[in-house]
């Protein structure tokens, strides 16, 4: 590890993969989102395997959920976004997909959060925008987060970039990230690798390092 001006620069997964340095973030693994992507069962299984390893090793875990506002509270940003996603030019045709009361809003039961794990709701794609995620990580003394879930090209890439700008080291668990568009997903991974802010890894590698307690 490099130490310019007494700063610890954690540059590798081996250095970061410790419960006192890294949290695990599960992004939008909700019933209504899983229903919209192919290969959802495989992504759930890989998320479950990483979660099991993280829980055994004592990592802090934070879940994200995408949330819709009722139409009166949607505002310009949410209306534009919903109209684009739902392929309509008429705001009156917009259907809020992820209201708190809807079954699709809930996290898939295979990954049910535990009592000592956080659940943060958001209306943005970056999990750091207007949520306490950054405060939680900093207050717990963490410098990194490993992220998985759905979808890499929609919310995980913006979250990783935002997190890097806030001073955290994002770790992208590639094979545990689902996608709605394969070409867009490949572009996201390539762009993240090119930028160099994030560490890209596979679920098996991360699970092995969690089990070994690599320092």
Strand order in space, largest sheet: 3-2-1-4-5-6
Number of strands: 6
What's the alpha carbon Rg, rounded to whole Å?
17 Å
Number of helices: 8
Quick structural gist:
The protein has 215 residues and is an alpha/beta fold. The chain has helices spanning 13-16, 31-34, 40-57, 75-85, 133-139, 152-165, 182-195, 203-212, and strands at 22-27, 61-66, 118-122, 144-150, 169-178, 199-201.
Write up what this structure looks like.
This protein has eight helices and six strands. It has a six-stranded parallel β-sheet. The termini are close together. The relative contact order is 0.20. The model has no long low-confidence stretch (mean pLDDT 94).
Which terms would index this structure?
215 residues; 8 helices; alpha/beta
List the helices and strands and how they pair.
Blueprint: H1 13-16, E1 22-27, H2 31-34, H3 40-57, E2 61-66, H4 75-85, E3 118-122, H5 133-139, E4 144-150, H6 152-165, E5 169-178, H7 182-195, E6 199-201, H8 203-212
Parallel strand pairs: 1-2, 1-4, 2-3, 4-5, 5-6
Helix pairs in contact: 3-8, 6-7
């Amino acid at each position: 590890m490099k130490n310019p001006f007494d700063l610890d620069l954690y540059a590798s997964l081996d250095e970061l993969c410790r419960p006192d340095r890294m949290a695990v973030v599960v992004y939008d693994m909700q019933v209504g989102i899983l229903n919209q992507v192919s290969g959802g069962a495989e992504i759930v299984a890989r998320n479950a395997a990483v979660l099991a390893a993280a829980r055994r090793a004592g990592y802090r875990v934070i879940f994200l959920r995408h949330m819709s506002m009722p139409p009166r509270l949607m505002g310009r940003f949410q209306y534009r976004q919903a109209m684009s996603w739902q392929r309509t030019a008429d705001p009156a045709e917009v259907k809020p997909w992820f209201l708190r009361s809807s079954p699709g809003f809930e996290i898939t039961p295979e990954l049910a959060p535990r009592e000592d794990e956080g659940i943060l709701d958001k209306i943005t794609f970056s999990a750091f925008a207007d949520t306490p995620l950054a405060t939680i990580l900093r207050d717990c003394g963490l410098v990194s987060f490993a992220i998985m879930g759905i979808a890499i090209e929609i919310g995980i890439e913006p979250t990783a970039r935002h997190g890097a700008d806030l001073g955290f080291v994002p770790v992208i668990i590639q094979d545990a990230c689902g996608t709605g568009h394969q070409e867009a997903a490949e572009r996201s991974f390539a762009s993240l690798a090119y930028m160099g802010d994030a560490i890209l890894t596979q679920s098996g590698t991360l699970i092995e390092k969690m089990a070994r307690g690599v320092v």
